Amino acid sequence: MSSDILDATAPQDLPVVVIGAGPVGLAAAAHLHEREVPFLILEAGSAVAASVRAWAHVSLFSPWRYNIDPAARRLLDTAGWAAPDDDTVPTGGQLVENYLQPLAKTAAITGRLRCDTRVVAISRTSLDKVRTDGRADLPFVLRLADGEDLLASAVIDASGTWNTPNPLGVNGLPAHGEHDLTDLIDHALPDVLGTDHDTHAGRHTLVVGSGHSAANTLLTLSRLAETTTGTRITWALRGTAAAALGEDDTDQLPDRGALGNGLRTLLETGHVTLLEGFGVHTVTRAGTGLQLTAIDGRTVTTERVVAATGFRPDHSIAGELRLDLDPILGCTRTLAELIDPNENSRSAITPHGYAELTHPEPNYYAVGMKSYGRAPTFLMTVGYEQVRSIAAALVGDFDDAEEIQLDLPDTGVCSTGLGAEQASRDIAARFGVDPDVPTALATATIALLPTAAGASEAVRAAAAQIGLDPRTALQIAAFNDEPGALPSVAGLISLTPSAAGRCC
User: How far apart are alpha carbons 245 and 267 in whole angstroms?
Assistant: First the structure.
């Protein structure tokens, strides 16, 4: 029976419904538990962190210390959790196995989690979007894919953007023919060295995109090419290589600047063929492969395409709610002012909480990747602070909600210069090494990245080259105390990119 007949139920007697059981959704549950707020988590996948599992083979940018929500850590510690080493960098799979799965199994969460439960629409009970009188006093109603209705006092949408990637088309629309060639087009982060090995080994792969997932795929394909003859790589950019490599003054995204060093090496050594200003207009089948035609008429033929073109939010389930979305990014207008990559060079680390995520619809919040809309620079730890602030606001603790408690690694831009000389000396003094060691470690790490088995392995190999203890090297690589000091967490220990910004 539809629970919508329970309109008389007071919102305060109902649970907060969290949509999505990924890192930010589970963190929301942990904070709600600490606030003694009843909650229910609805996960569309068959298990928690379904999207993270899709990029399980990818290393994150940052070490464990930045990937564990504080409330979640406290909950896990109470359950006798064996915490991972704060200074090591996990893969997506390790994030799930060693953190998210144990968190979901805690007594506080396991009985309040429903998997295989997809939300298809949200509204208020007894009225539609047009009605205003009494709106805030009525519960939310969430319609599930099987027709069931659930009531909620508030909704925290942490469903992410993984399932809504941007298309190949240069104008934001699917390229002509794109939908008919999905058998030859992969979206972000195929497991090139694992389950997708045979798809790319000995073949020509074209990677389209300039962000984190594109860089990851290019670097991984270069490792495949080292061991498999006939493997060719082409990189198609809508813009210029200078911007993608972090040399352009308008591109101040720190992760992109750091990744530029590894990608530059691939270009200089001829491991990757570059196509600049290649805006895809049409895709057609060509024998067993496909041909892409740019808007300026240029063509390229390949056997496989990886469309690493980013992601976008899908707000369709909230169509009956009153959302105030920025027309450019698709996030709240207030947050857009802080994170618009057209205007802000360091948008990824802008502190914010519930206030910047508030819509005209009271007690509805989109958080995590979805909260950033099309902005490409979301950090996981920012999502943790979002839900901490929201949980405080939901119980009326606005002093705590407004006191931003964000613990971020410094993510200063890494360009061809590897850091300020004074800052390098400061870090050397902190770790008791010679003044030139931090810069030497950065240089060696970047050079070894294309052939290393992973980011941490590159740091260890670099340490061996320069005669440095590997544990000290990992600590130096994970540390940054001053802006611009070194390539930072995003530029040293974790040069291997994350899934479209799912990093810190």
Answer: 11
DSSP letter string, 316-375: GGGTTS---B-TTTSSBHHHHHHH-TTT-TTGGG----HHHH--SSTTEEE-GGGGGTT-
Token pair recorded at residue 192: 């090139």
Can you list the positions of beta strands (E) in 164-227?
185-187, 204-208
- 439 near 418, Cβ under 8 Å? yes
Quote the DSSP letter at residue 396. Answer: T
**Cα 161 to Cα 20, 296, 355, distances in angstroms:** 11, 30, 22
CA separation (Å) from 353 to 108, 299, 382, 391, 401? Answer: 24, 46, 9, 10, 7
Ramachandran assignment for 497, one of left (phi > 0), alpha (psi -120 to 50 degrees), beta (any other): beta
Instruction: Please tell me the distance from the alpha carbon of residue 157 to that of residue 488, in angstroms, as a whole number.
Output: 31
Residue 275 DSSP class: E
Instruction: Write out residues in the chain with pLDDT < 50, as ranges.
Output: 1-8, 247-257, 346-348, 411-421, 480-504
Residue 241, pLDDT score: 83
Distance of alpha carbon 311 from alpha carbon 55, whole angstroms: 14
> In terms of C-beta density within 10 A (0-12 exposed, 13-18 middle, 19 or more buried), how is residue 282 classed?
middle
Q: Cα 165 to chain center, whole Å?
A: 12
C-alpha span between 475 and 438 (Å, rounded): 11
